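Summary for the lay section of the report: proteins are chains of building blocks that fold into shapes. Here we show the chain for HAD-IC family P-type ATPase and then a coded description of the shape we predicted for it.
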Amino acid sequence: MTQQPAVNHPDTDGTRSPVGSGLSGAEVMARTEAGLANTVSDAPSRTLGQIFRANLLTLFNAIVGCSFCLLLLLGQWKDALFGLAAAGNILIGVVQEYRAKKSLDRLAILNASPARVVRDGTAQDIDLQDVVRDDVLLLRVGDQVPADASIIDGEGLELDESLLTGESHPVSKGPGSEVPSGSSVVAGHGRARVVRVGADSFASKLTAGAKRFSMVNSEMRNSLNRILRWITWLLPPVMILVINGQMQASGGWEQAITTGSWRTASVGAVASVIAMIPLGLVLLSSVAFAVGGLRLARQKVLIQELAAVEGLARVDVFCLDKTGTLTEGKLVFDGVHEAGASPKPGWRQVLGWFGTDPQANATARCLAGAFPSGTSLRPSSTVPFSSARKWSAVSFGSDQFVGGSWVLGAPEIVLREDTPDTARVVEAAGRLASIGLRTMALAYLPGPLPVRDAAEDQAPDGCAPVCLLTFRESVRPDAAKILDYFREQNVEVRIISGDDPRTVAAVAREVGLDAENGYDARELPVDPDLMLEALENNVVFGRVTPEQKRDMVLSLQRGGHTVAMTGDGVNDALALKEADIGIAMDSAAPATKAVSRLVLLDGRFDRLPGVVAEGRRVIANIEWVSVLFLSKTAYAIALSATFGALLWDFPFLPRQLSATDGLTIGIPAFFLALMPNNRRYAPGFLKRSLSFAGPAGLVVAAAVFAINLYSTAVGGHTSSATRTASVLTLSLTGLWILAVISRPLNLRRTTIIGAMHLGLVFVLAVPFLQDFFGLEWPRNDLLLTALGNALGGILAIEALHRCQRRRNARK
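The coded shape description reads as follows.
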């Protein structure tokens, strides 16, 4: 081929450096000092100290921490056990965010292999960050381009840009063509001049977008945070009301301070405040997510953020990249198709030679395993393959049984002559290409290869068709079955790829999707509403750029969808980052894995149903236990406000609430959160939980208030006995809430409920526990009243549950 003249670019000082000698040492120094080196100033992510302060210094933690410290100062360490749960919540928040930070800090799109440049007339290997603008790069097979560059010259130069653009076919590059940083040389060699470095390069811009910190969108976490915000703003006024009530119940502020009874009043105030906070709910939710993550780890699924276990169960649109997800990311030989008359003898050996030729491209190399080795053949001349020519050729001497010339390439290029035979073969090749197969034609030309044609892009004249060869992408064997599963679960699927839409549609049909035609993303509207309409009405999209992938995900989210996306290339990183759940395959680029929420470590697509099932188990179980915690918050707020307004002592000590919480909520909730549960996800977790927990909590509060009202009205009962009666009433009604939400009951759940009732008996009957929790067995009248109130509360909770079940059935 004729070589085009080299392209020079002006230096920063207005001069030009000769291409052959590259930059001089002085020019490199000048560019480095001018900030034109290939370094990227990372925007620092939050430090560990900043993360810790953000999770610690909140109004919520301030109230809990002050209450904890107050009890320690008063010597009431038995009542300060809630501090352990609060510390656990802070620790979990710090660990989750720090893990996400470390993952993003490690993100890199360019590999650390050195770059080869020409400086002062000699080839040198230098570090990537030492490359400067206008450096002359020497590109060889296997090299990764360290910075955006423009091709100066080359021979058969082809680059794989699939990690960056999604286009799986190698791209031919000639003089003047730009090559993005991060692409890899797969054929030929050449020289290129660097045009953009550092933060301005393509790979760096992708990295910067992917490094932006974000937490997975979790309905559970969002709902819990919303509850905590509500409680945080409720706490100050309720605290004032309770503290004033406690002081007035002790004889007024002046007397309480004078006599020291403010200490007892303070303990009661702390008890009311801590009772309103569902400390264990956040902790238990994180534990449930963590256990789910461990279970998935045994299935070779890496969870990079715990809440992702829940997120996948909420997904209603799955965006799949074709290469590396539906397919295995490699081309395989498909078959031989006749081209008319009996082929010339030796054609199989010739195909074997093409497959083992050191200059063979990726397509031709697929022939090596399907045909006899042609290493014994001795060519007299060859023309290497290039994407510009779209053909390669070889000539053998007349003394060999395969004597003559053989041409392998695109059918429409190799079979140029308009004859009935060639027209029929080219038409057949078109039909094969329309079903997603890549085609090549093997042609024969008697005699040696004409020198003139070998030097030009045009294939030789007079080529006679020998056979058609087809190639296809290897589809993952489990892909069709998994897509069937998602259809059954009412999860829509969208195939998004950088390849030709016809090829993508053919692969989609092979895995069972109804995709007659693919949508060319070059025609995709920019307007978000029109883009959403196109996404709703089409399944397969081809020629999609990395930015379009991200915009498509955002458009689906604006349309109210919860989006999951799988991918393995750097071109997928931005979309994976924006998706509600990003899933990387084992073969994914490091940058892609870094921004993904889940990584399939063994690349098995059939792991996804198990991940969905685990997410549904976590969601359903946390919804169960949230009812327990929220009902406690409801009755605590009601009791605090009521007793504070009436200027009565709060009916529990903090340690007593720790005991009732453990028996009615904490211990059983731990086991319930880890049990099997295959219930389908339904939006509205918080609304459903509060619709039962709120009224149930008011029922409990009414039962406890009634026992205190009776004790006050009758008189003669000690405060310890009244508190014990309150503990009994609260525990029995709380355990019935546990029994209600555990339905349908099985042996395991019944055992847990029974064990909690037995635990209540031990707390009330064992002297050591009585003394520790400040309990005193009440007189018979107060005991019977407590049991009667508990029974009334149980009946009310049962009626409430039945009403809610009928309401849900109607919906």
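Put simply, here is one thing we learned. The CA atoms of residues 739 and 750 lie 8 Å apart.
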